[in-house]
Amino acid sequence: QVQLVESGGGLVQAGGSLRLSCAASGKIFSINAMGWYRQAPGKQRELVAAIGSRGSTNYADSVKGRFTISRDTVKNTMYLQMNNLKPEDTAVYYCAAGLDGLGYQYWGQGTQVTVSS
């Protein structure tokens, strides 16, 4: 099993920044890909950003140029740097992990991000 714990959420004004962290523990060897999802009230969960086993990244169009995903393999921690936040970024953000090509098997509990206008 792999445990994922998110942190760094909070309330910020539009135009501000936040950095989310996702600390992984347990059978780390069983994962090589991680991602961030978010779910706003009344909406489906959506992929925000992902990082693969070789460091390749991809982003939702809505966050390109504003969000940056990164991973520290020594600390077993993934980050999401979010800049120029907008009210529509308000959601619960979830960390996910798994193996490349096999989908995400492990999920964190989520951290709330609220952006005020």
Low-pLDDT runs of 5+ residues are none
- Per DSSP, the total helix count is 0
Q: How much of the sequence is in beta strands? A: over 45%
Report the strand count: 11
Briefly note the structural class of the backbone: mainly beta
| Biggest sheet features | 7 strands, mixed
Report Rg.
13 Å
Helical fraction equals: under 10%
Mean pLDDT: 96
**N- and C-termini, Cα separation:** 40 Å
The 3D shape can be described as globular
Order of helices and strands: EEEEEEEEEEE
Task: Set out the fold topology.
Elements: E1 2-7, E2 10-13, E3 18-26, E4 33-39, E5 46-51, E6 57-59, E7 67-72, E8 77-82, E9 91-99, E10 103-107, E11 111-116
Parallel strand pairs: 2-11
Antiparallel strand pairs: 1-3, 3-8, 4-5, 4-9, 5-6, 7-8, 9-10, 9-11
Walk me through the structure:
By secondary structure, the protein is mainly β. The chain contains no helices and eleven strands. It has strands at residues 2-7, 10-13, 18-26, 33-39, 46-51, 57-59, 67-72, 77-82, 91-99, 103-107, 111-116. The strands form two sheets. Strands 2, 4, 5, 6, 9, 10 and 11 form a seven-stranded mixed sheet that branches. Strands 1-3-8-7 form a four-stranded antiparallel sheet, with no helix packed on it. The mean pLDDT is 96.
